[in-house]
Write a structure and sequence with these properties.
binds ligand FNR; TIM Barrel; alpha/beta; 8-stranded parallel beta barrel
Length: about 375
């Protein structure tokens, strides 16, 4: 068991990333940190945040400051959510149960993955009174999707997050090179009761992608079906194109998550942050809009909020904090993120999230601000 204490030298949330190699075997680290292909989109996500600077302001009174917000009427104390990340037993034996405890302790909304290594009911129990949403991958059999929905509703999840951008994911070259194979104890616990659908052999001339991997990929019909199959609000995750955003909102999505899956779906896709202003313009001010992919600090969250997001999700950082210090680490990481955001808001003269506007940012590259790299301790 990893020690349940905060490792020395952690002063910022991103320090958990720097320490990840000390707490994770090399092959697991390669799988988690890697994106897909040659990690170009992973790099683009970070570069996009570095292409903006925050403008400090003077003589602003922020003594009544707070970060409260509401998403579709659901209140939150801060704009950080825990992104759905699968197979958390790779990082810690307590896996999603530890993450859920940290979420409850920090009033953070947890988004539990369909592919969690702990059943969704046990995650909900560990999350206690804390907010929780369930991320859904549509299953090849609709009966199995309906069962997942019923289980999520019964376990008190308050929203469904439908992920649409990962029907096919290109392999990560770094994970392949490190020889990563998913260990059996990390398999998707939610799905073990569902008999796998029989594979359909490809006909001569069929594509392994079009007629193979994409055979069960969601269509617009599936989305309409899902919207009528649950009473919970349905968010859609994986939106990049403004036209898709407009169409999904018109179809009935409760909110959208601008995301490229942390660079894990299409290597060469643009940074999520780069598309955020266009998506916000497409859906208008009233559409609840979240962003993920590349968030490593409170200042990154500030930039995303300035460019149109209502809140952000944190993916890999939760894995790294979980590996380093279990539930305590995840709670500590979230506390650091919130404090970093408070500090950035105070410096920029913003007392509330509504005060964070595009005018708070200045486009870079600027000669005085090199790309950020956390220095070694
Ligand atoms: C993910 N992500 C993900 N997304 C999802 O909708 N369902 C899932 O099961 C998973 N699983 C998963 C596993 C691992 C190891 C990673 C790193 C990511 C994507 C995740 O929700 C989020 O979009 C990205 O992680 C955000 O980028 P950052 O914060 O990791 O840079």
């Amino acid at each position: 068991m990893p020690p349940e204490r905060i490792p020395p030298g952690i002063h910022n949330a991103i320090d958990y990333e720097r320490l990840a190699a000390q707490h994770l075997p090399a092959d697991r680290l390669a799988y988690i940190a890697g994106g897909c292909g040659w990690d170009r989109t992973v790099a683009a996500n970070r570069a996009a945040f570095d292409s903006w600077a925050v403008l400090p302001r003077l003589l602003r009174d922020v003594r009544g400051g707070h970060t409260r917000l509401a998403l579709n009427g659901q209140p939150f104390l801060h704009p950080f959510l825990l992104a759905p990340v699968a197979h958390q037993r790779l990082a810690h034996p307590d896996a999603e149960v530890a993450t859920a405890r940290a979420a409850e302790a920090t009033d953070t909304c947890l988004v539990a993955s369909t592919l969690s290594s702990t059943p969704l009911e046990a995650i909900a129990q560990a999350a206690g009174q804390g907010p929780r949403w369930f991320q859904l991958y549509l299953q090849p059999e609709r009966a199995h999707t309906l069962d997942l929905l019923a289980r999520a509703e019964a376990a008190g999840y308050q929203a469904i997050v439908l992920t649409l951008d990962a029907s096919i994911q290109l392999a990560s070259r770094s994970a392949l090179a490190a020889g990563f194979v998913l260990p059996p104890e990390c398999l998707a616990a939610n799905l073990t009761g569902y008999a796998p659908s029989a594979p359909t052999p490809l006909a001569p001339g069929d594509s392994r992608i079009f007629q193979g991997a994409m055979r069960h990929a969601p269509t617009r019909c599936d989305l309409d079906w899902l919207l009528s199959a649950t009473r919970l609000p349905v968010w859609v995750k994986g939106v990049l194109h403004p036209d898709d955003a407009r169409a999904l909102r018109a179809a009935g999505a409760a909110g959208l998550i601008v995301s490229n899956h942390g660079g894990r779906s299409l290597d060469g896709a643009p940074a999520s942050l780069a598309l955020l202003p266009a998506v916000r313009a497409a859906v208008g001010a009233d559409c609840p809009l979240l962003l993920d992919s590349g968030i490593r600090s409170g200042q990154d969250a500030f930039k995303a909020l300035a460019l149109g997001a209502d809140a952000v999700l944190v993916g890999r950082l939760q894995f790294y904090a979980l590996a380093a210090a279990g539930a305590l680490g995840v709670a500590h990481m979230l506390t650091l993120l919130a404090e970093e955001l408070h500090a950035c808001m105070a410096q920029a003269g913003c007392a509330t999230l509504a005060d964070i506007t595009p005018g708070a940012l200045l486009p870079c590259p600027c000669p005085c601000l090199p790309p950020f790299e956390a220095p070694a301790c």
